[in-house]
Design goal:
290 residues; single chain; Rossmann fold; alpha/beta; 8-stranded mixed β-sheet; globular; 11 helices
Length: 290
């Protein structure tokens, strides 16, 4: 999870890359994205169709970024960003997933409070101002609201011409978005058939509606990619996830990666290209089941 302990690990990761936290923040998301991008990937294939969309929900209207290949109908994927929300880093990740053959909806889970971007980079989350800004927005998100949103997103996707109606829907989430993938699969079991969580926070708890307790009430296959520093603090979580999946007979790949919390997010201090690519490949393998 994103707290003072992961902040220490982030400082160490930045130092290994020749950055201080201040330099990283000054460089901004655009510079970091350019430094992390694969120079050949952005030039390959046809241009994607992308739009900022407005989706009706029981609580209002959610803004989101929708990107898909230009021709054909494709399996849909709902992408839940990390704690800093929908921003350029996640648009880039959405474009890459779309280029792999998916209609990708990158959602603003803070829409009840503000349109995206709420923050422009994960570095802003580490500032006192960023944390003060997000605190009430985070508090406005409940498990019930997340599931309500998921059903609304699924309904909206079902009406889009670029979405294949006979294919299942996938979902992927990062940090606080990790457990949202499980809640989405629980909320829409007839449509969501694959869920991938990357350095997910709050997947296991004593609560009756803890995400790990919902795994068996879905029809999805799962990928739980766990950060090594998250595992060090809660080593029993992976075992609880494995036990829940096994008891329910749900297919689940659960692995602790050799990288820290945030390693999959392009603009994160902990971004680890090698391990991020490995996790990305496992996600694509999972989504082939849609």
């Amino acid at each position: 999870m994103c707290d003072e302990f992961t902040a220490i690990d982030e400082d160490l990761a930045l130092a290994e890359r020749g950055f201080s936290r201040r330099q990283f923040a000054v460089a901004g998301a655009a510079g970091v994205l350019a430094a992390c991008a694969d120079p050949g990937e952005s030039q390959a294939g046809p241009a994607m169709i992308e739009t900022v969309v407005q989706i009706p929900t029981p609580d209002g209207t959610a803004d989101a970024f929708f990107v898909r290949p230009p021709r054909g109908r494709f399996p849909a994927v709902i992408l839940w960003p990390d704690i800093a929300g929908l921003r350029d880093a996640y648009k880039a990740m959405g474009r890459r997933l779309a280029a792999a053959g998916y209609a990708v909806l990158v959602v603003n889970h803070y829409y009840r409070s503000a349109p995206a971007p709420v923050l422009n980079s994960i570095a802003e989350w580490r500032t006192p101002e960023g944390q003060a800004k997000l605190k009430p927005m985070i508090a406005a998100i409940t498990p019930e609201r997340t599931m309500s949103d998921a059903r609304a997103f699924v309904a909206w996707l079902g009406k889009q011409r670029g979405v294949h109606p006979q294919k299942g829907i996938g979902t992927c989430g990062y940090c606080m978005g990790g457990p949202y993938t499980v809640r989405s699969a629980f909320a829409a079991p007839d449509r969501i058939r694959a869920a991938a969580s990357f350095h997910g926070a709050g997947l296991v708890s004593d609560a009756a509606d803890s995400p790990h307790r919902l795994v068996g009430k879905t029809r999805a296959g799962f990928l739980f990619a766990i950060a090594r520093n998250d595992d060090a603090r809660a080593p029993g979580d992976k075992d609880a996830l494995k036990a829940a999946a096994a008891a329910a007979g749900r297919p689940a790949e659960i692995e602790v990666y050799n990288a820290d919390h945030g390693w999959c997010t392009l603009d994160a201090p902990a971004y680890d290209k090698a391990e991020a690519e490995r996790a990305w490949a496992r996600m694509l393998t999972l989504f082939k089941t849609l």
